Amino acid sequence: MNTVTERAAQLYGASMQALDLLGIGWLVCDSNRRVVGANRIANRILTTQDGIRLNSDGVLHLTRGGSEILSDAVQQAARAGARLQGTKRHHSLLLAKRDTGKRAFTLVVRSVQSSSAKHCRPPLALMLIVDPSLSARPSESDLRQLYGFTSRESSLAALLMDGSTLDDCCCQLGIRRSTIRTHLKQMFKKSRVHRQGEMVSILMKSIGLMRLRDQGADTDTLMQQPFGSWTDSIVSETCTWVPPAACSITSTAISRSGNDRRRLF
Question: Which CATH number fits the domain 140-208, given the four candidates 2.60.40.1080, 1.10.10.10, 1.10.20.10, 3.30.420.40?
Fold first, then answer.
């Protein structure tokens, strides 16, 4: 691997890890919804088969209806990307309802612009998968480092960022409401705000969306098992270089989908 290729691989890996820190799933598919690359967050979501899954051919399906709408969105994005010349891009927003009853995934389907004058063949679409059910609770050490919160103040901040009421915080922390308000006054000073809602907003924007203590798979591993030889032929025809590690989906996600093939079709 030459220096340019190694540099490209490093930049690609760093950008994918950034999405991992935000808890955002990322995948690229062709106009037929066949996946050609994904990060570990998307791979984990596909493996659970809760709301969105792959069939045995690597084609995306929504588990609770709406696959036709998804298909239209992907095809429109892929077609738009194939003829894209300026900066304007096509995008669609969808909700993928989940079998477990958790909040639906937000799917952002977006066109992918060719990196050269010669259009990519086949055209591709980018999909971002956002899970609203993920907890936004940074560690106490992170909050202490940023704002100088004490251990108790950090615990209170984490609960408020996760949507808990003051009464909920009292119960979980085992302290009185008056004590909670005393802590809040100190936290307002440290974060330079005047209201609880303002403080929560600042905390969410500064660190709440980042999952620096994620307990999932290794952040350096985008994919683990090759999906099949078809990925090589698809990626080789695209205009943008993609590291080989990104062009596969775990065998677990595929095998589970294959066992339930009738349900998908």
Answer: 1.10.10.10
